[in-house]
Specification:
382 residues; alpha/beta; Aspartate Aminotransferase, domain 2; Aspartate Aminotransferase, domain 1; seven-stranded mixed β-sheet; binds pyridoxal-5'-phosphate
Amino acid sequence: MQRPIYLDCHATTPLDPRVLEAMLPYFTEHFGNPASTTHAYGWAAEAAVKQSREVLAEAIAASPEEIVFTSGATEANNLAIKGVAEAYFSRGRHLITVQTEHSAVLDPCCYLQSLGFEVTFLPVQSDGLINLKQLEQAFRPDTILVSVMAANNEIGVLQPLAEIGAICRSRGVLFHTDAAQAIAKIPLSVEAMQIDLMSLTAHKVYGPKGIGALYVRRRQPRVQLAAQLHGGGQERGMRSGTLYPPQIVGFAKAVELGLAELETETQRQIQLRDRLWQRLSQLPGVYLNGHPTQRLPGNLNISVADVDGQALLLGLQPIIAVSSGSACSAAKIEPSHVLSALGRSEKLAFASIRFGIGRFNTEAEIDRAGKGAIATIQSLRL
Ligand SMILES: Cc1ncc(COP(=O)(O)O)c(C=O)c1O
């Protein structure tokens, strides 16, 4: 049986074979612990980690000592938000974030609320962008952190990081961004964008799962962070635990390849995305979710009127692997909190499709996917 066409690249991406090749020697021949300083096995592993750290730092215009390896963006977000809250609580107990953030940002914020912190969850406009005036108005004398994601995982919308960074810096408030979906897909610079903390992950950019990093600014300002994992004191005490060289090498290789191919891939994916949208938008009652151009190149998110959301996903399953934003929580299916924040009705939020086009998708696949989606929608409307 033929597998459905994979168009769910915001959930995860396939490992690039070039990444796998770079990783393999670190599972077998160079298996050492990078913290073993007394022999060649440790030195080889440490050299690979050092080089990877340099590649990742350069990718975001940081310096290598500012990269803290984690198990992914969930852990990086938790470390940034809880770590800052714990380190700065004597200065203030107010945080600002956005309603459309990933749960790995929203849930740590809710946890902090349970400890007595106060959190402002900014709304978004109907295109998914925050209103900078509203951000400015949300600051209080006790605000210690602003957390706004770089690229949304459902609608792909790119928030104006440089403007947000400038606003935060002018008020002396730390700025964290969850760049899980953005790294090596759009240009990122912690200097130009005045970002103090940035969460990264490898598996959305053709790298391995289970590895990510938190960028933590060391100068102007030097960010204080309370560790959330205690132990051997790795990562300058900010994140204990033996480093995992194969994953780290794979992460760096994935980012390096992504940046090398960024321009050509951006153009190619925009072309594929627009081609798919042209087809789908010929049907009546199909709506684009999120800003039409200020979004990730490979992202297309639509809502479909007059169909049942679950029947739609079920009908698409044999043809294309996609997802909708709806999530199960407490055994109840909830409409996507992102689409709800855009003002979509519950019915349209349920009947949504998130297409995540990636490096390995071809024009022929996009055409087959478009045809299949149209046929499914039409049959459900009969
Ligand atoms: C925006 C965003 N943040 C955080 C995460 C979590 O990343 P990880 O799977 O590396 O923990 C994801 C992935 O699902 C994401 O899309």
